[in-house]
Each structure stands twice: as structure tokens, then as C-alpha cells.
Amino acid sequence: MADFILTTGDQASFTPTFGAATVVPVLGILAGTGKGTINKKQICVDGDEKKVIVSGCAYMTPVYSIPGVGTLTIDSLGGNQKAKKTKSGGKPVLLKGSTFKAKFQVMVPAMQPPKGPTPPIPDSTPQYSGNGTFMTTNMRVKAT
Questions:
Q1: Which range of residues forms the domain containing residue 82?
Q2: 1 pLDDT exceeds 90?
Q3: Tell me, what DSSP letter sits at residue 62?
Q4: What is the pLDDT of residue 73?
Q5: Three-state secondary structure along 68-112?
Q6: Which tens digit of pLDDT belongs to each residue from 82-134?
């Protein structure tokens, strides 16, 4: 089924729930490298999603309530987010689709509050998995 093609400036919206972690997400911005344009914005193609990196996002877990910080990235696209037929510069164009898999990489671990004289205990989980969706301004051109 046809869906809207993603272009430069479209956004990756990450859900706050990443397993046991709750992340305060910030929108990621896509930068297209395709050969064509829609509304004077470059088309996004396969691989452009790997350049969406959102650093400085705070997170907590039920156990580690002192916030930590990490980086959000797109881990893999959903099956309906890469065109099967439409290409630009030899690469499949990216589509709005449903959801992508996302990764939250811990940079500064969240901490468990100290009990008495003991120091806070850091979160030992290096990364968490979650999801996200794309938001596009292109409401005109679709592809399959």
C-alpha cells in the first residue's frame, strides 16, 4: 500500500517507554540524501534514518529514580517504512509507515538513591529498546 515519502526536516518521534526505562524523548530530525525533492526538500532514502541521533535525553527507572542521560537512535525500520518499488539514486525511499525500533544508549547512568552512608548505586543496564514513529510534512506524494 502506498504511503507518504519522508523528506528533509521530517521528524522521528520516540515513545517514552523503553523497557524498564522511561525516557524524556526529544524529536529527531531527518536529513534526506535522495536525488529528488518534494516541496523543495530532499527525499529521504534507506540509510538516512541511521543519521538520526538525539543525545542528552534524561531517563529514569522505577529502581533508579535519580535521572541519567543517554542517546536515542533508530535501530531498525518497520517493514512498511522502506519502499519496495520506489527508489531515488538507486536506494529505496523512506515512508512514514507505522513504527520503527529504537535504541536508548545510556551515557550517564541513572542512580538508585543512597541508603544511609552508602553512595548512590548506578544503573548497570547499558541500553534499552523502544519504538517510535515518523511525522511528515509531505501530505501529497506517496510511494510503494
A1: 3-134
A2: no
A3: S
A4: 98
A5: EEEEEEEEECCCCCEEEEEEECCEEEEECCCCEEEEEEEEECCEE
A6: 999 999 999 999 999 999 999 999 999 999 998 888 899 999 999 999 999 99
What is the Cα–Cα distance from 137 to 119, expressed in whole angstroms?
Answer: 48
Worst-scoring range by mean pLDDT, 2-11, 29-38, 45-54, 113-122?
113-122
Single out the residue of 129, 126, 81 nearest to residue 108, CA to CA. Answer: 126
142 part of a folded domain: no
pTM as predicted: 0.94
Angle at 43 between CA 39 and CA 47, to 5 degrees: 160
Q: Dig out the grid coordinates for 96 from the structure.
A: 512514514
Rounded to an integer, what is the distance from CA 63 to the centroid of its chain?
25
Q: Which residues pair with 65 in a beta bridge?
A: none
Structural domain count of the chain: 1
Instruction: State how far the Cα of 48 lies from the Cα of 27, in Å rounded to an integer.
Output: 15
Assess if residue 49 is contained within a domain: yes
